[in-house]
Amino acid sequence: MMRGRSLRAALGWSAWLGLATVAVADGPVDPAAVEFFEKRVRPILVERCVGCHGPEKAKGDLRLDSRAGAIAGGATGPAVEPGDADASPLVEAIRYEGDVRMPPKSKLAQEEIDVLTQWVAKGAPWGPEPEKAAAAPVKGALDGSPEFARRAAFWSFQPIRAVEPPAVDGDWSRGAIDRFLLSALRAKGLEPAPEAERRTLIRRLAFDLTGLPPTPAEVAAFLADDAPDAYERLVDRLLASPAYGERWARHWLDLVRFAETSGHEFDYDILNAWRYRDYVVRALNDDLPYDQFIVEHLAGDLLPEPRRNPLDGSNESIQGTGFFWLGEGVHSPLDVRDEGVRRVDNQIDVMSKTFLGLTVSCARCHDHKFDPISTRDYYALAGFLRSTRIQQAFVDSDVRIAPIVADLEARKAALASLLAEAAPRLPEPRRSEVEALLRRPEPAAWAAPAGRPAPEDLSTWRSTGDAFAARPETPFRIEPSRLVAAPAGSLGSGLVSDRLQGVVRSPTFTIAGRRLHVLAGGTGGRLNLVIDGFEKIRGPIYDGLTVPVNHPQAPHWITLDVTTWVGHRAFLEVCDGASADFGGATAEPVDGRGRVDVLAVRASDDPAPPAIEVPAEVAVDAAALVRDLEAVDSPLAERVATALAEYREVESRIPAPALAPAAIDGDGEDEFVMLRGSPRTLGEAAPRKLLAVLGGGGPSPGAVGSGRLELARAMVDPEADPLIARVIVNRLWQHHFGVGLVRSADDFGAMGQAPSHPELLDWLASEFVRRGWSLKAMHRLMVESSAYRMAARATPEADRADPTNALLHRANVRRLEAEAVRDALLAVSGRLDRRAGGPSVPSYLSPFMDGRGRPKESGPLDGDGRRSLYLQVRRNFLNPLFLVFDAPVPASTMGRRHASNVPAQALALLNDPLVIQLAETWAARSLADDATDAAQVGRLYQEAFARPPTAEEVGRCVAYLEARRSAGPADEKAAWADLAHALFNVKEFVYVD
Known about the structure:
Layout: H1 31-48, H2 50-53, H3 67-72, H4 89-95, H5 110-121, H6 146-152, H7 176-187, H8 198-210, H9 216-224, H10 230-240, H11 242-255, H12 274-285, H13 290-299, H14 336-356, H15 375-386, E1 388-394, H16 397-422, H17 430-438, E2 462-465, E3 476-478, E4 482-485, E5 491-492, E6 502-505, E7 509-510, E8 515-531, E9 546-561, E10 569-575, E11 595-604, E12 619-621, H18 622-630, H19 634-651, E13 659-665, E14 671-674, E15 682-686, H20 708-715, H21 723-737, H22 758-770, H23 775-783, H24 796-801, E16 814-815, H25 818-829, H26 880-884, H27 903-911, H28 913-926, H29 933-945, H30 951-966, H31 972-984, H32 987-990, E17 991-992
Antiparallel strand pairs: 1-13, 2-6, 3-4, 4-12, 5-11, 6-10, 7-10, 8-9, 8-10, 8-11, 14-15, 16-17
Helix pairs in contact: 1-5, 8-10, 8-11, 10-23, 11-12, 13-20, 14-15, 16-17, 16-19, 18-19, 21-22, 21-23, 25-28, 28-31, 29-30, 30-31
């Protein structure tokens, strides 16, 4: 039975396409709602609805290509009740719950139904464009058009202006920032609030720069410091603290949707994701220039001279590219190409919002509705990512492992010389075996014939790590008990040592035959066929695409049935390791032996492998060799035995490599424009380049590789791209002052908000570039201003004249973020462990946190006392305390968190077992000395609020303690724990003014 009115005659239900034309009813435009429509709703409508219910055809007299049309309805009335999904006939129809089912031939996927239902429940938002029939998007219509020029004239796309700070009277201004703000205030007849007291300033600074409360000793030292530069030295000390990088890394991780699992059904781990987090902390603490920071994110794997960690020499630059791979992912998608498109869409969304403050993903299905971003622009960026693969990068191999490899190669060459000297003296058949061992192999008889598709030419394969990269002159392997000749023409991973690890990958190719035959031998390795860049090779659909290599004595043919994937793009990946994910390397590499030899690759329709003669193994027993040599030349035999023993001793020192998720170049390929966002309907190729409105920089036509390095360098050119500097200085301003100069931190486009102080924004951006893109320099500039030091209280007259504080006549009172709340609890209670870096602490899982992908064991309740930054972020099991304090779900960029004030937060501080435990810890520490009640209360207040209690507060606390004692047998610990718990629940604890 249908709810609401019948939909049978209102059959033109896809006219709700037009519901996006107006934000929500007649209210203001909500950029997030419009983005939701453009990215999630419109593609469904265009793909599944507009053909029957668009401008060319309107069945049932219902036009849904405008919001007004949907509300007016068809022959029997509206199809949509904005804000009430259950009462909307449209929702009933797409759910197949009534007698009208839409679309009639095939039901929408459940995800699509959920999106449309959510859209109607949100009020059926659209965008503030003229309500007119929505035609199917025309590819490239925006490119070079007058409309493009009009949009490109928008303020944020204009060059950064050289602005002089205005002249102002008085001594309030300490610098240019103050002059801009004071000029704007006085234009409205306002004056700034007075400076906050010193206790307020140190607490504000400590939380802003380190995310931790100041200790009583730090407060006392600052209050006692009468030097004129006391404040500036406090700023310098906080910026030099390791906690600074941890604090600001948390802000950055919001932008790149950092998580350590993939979500979806089984929440698989993103191996070694924590290394990206630690990379960000180090980069911020080292004050890495922001332009280099961006280049490392986009192309750190391609830098000719990567930045090195000064302590261990590891490759820092390559770890920045890990941000690409931190998104959600389906573990076994039905449509692997579509899943790849979704992954790239998320990468573009995060990249463009984080660095550029633009919603480029809104141009996936059609030209952007408001900004100068065409569909071709979108797919030009997608090409960079189509040409990029994921790997578990060996970040320290060239420092920790390369010297050992060089030593082994030298020792192996010396051993080869000894064997060449010994061979003529050995009896047969040992002499022939040694001579064969030392003989350089001829080119393989099976070498790929001309014109055959890649990956048959093994010389074009690319390796990472150490196992396949080492190509010594000596053509044999030294195994624990044997010397074995390398097969002719093979790609081998054990020529220096079978303790080395690595991956070798073929070029990308189109699967043309139904079978892929690989001739391979070895043990402890794995062969992966990666379809359309999909690395998470899991069952039930993809388990046939990953095959262990376990043929230690002789190579065997491995045949992959690729019938399902004919026509798809793919590459082969051979891993000297155990895992099939992210390049085949394990999270904790196996410290053992293994090797893989690939001799041939053939594609055909024949289920049987080709008739290629498999070369016989040539091997010499090491012990037998020494025995035979002792009989004819004992000193030489001893030298050979010593050389073998010394080689194995050096080999035993090979450490397990440090691995991090990172990008690696594939073959350079432009992406095709996907009509209506569908990978099944392709248009023309879109050459890789930056957005046209930002100069369109990128690789030259025909360039080898992805071109990401050229993209990165174009993006950080302030002459061509004015957004990079504007966006980041606005983010810094937001975190210091509570609100950005541009409130829509992730959207500097037409749907965002205009800057409150445009001249100040441009001055900050130009100053940022002038100061070498130094983030710490900008922090100093902002927090040392008089504006930052203002008190949070102002006169009623000022609040009436500037009710939203847009002119910044006073400081904004701000609630601590979720992680800062927890870190403050740990710090005040004395439980905080300030150790930096390393693998994340496993998530604490309450009995109520259940579901697929739940780890077998829970982490500790208090996270071992580590800062919140170091707690594992599992997408399907997010920290409940963090969620209640508005920590974002890591789906896409969140440049400005919500800051709600809801009862659930008070309930969490009252009832969360962690808060109760830390209150007990705090109380126990306070009771460790014999101070009076009043003195102990004073200490608690100093630790919690950076101020002494008032006489009234002391009296109340002491009276409470005495009442507890008089009520029964004294339980000092419980009484003090309850008092500590009460102080945790004071609003002042979680707010900074």
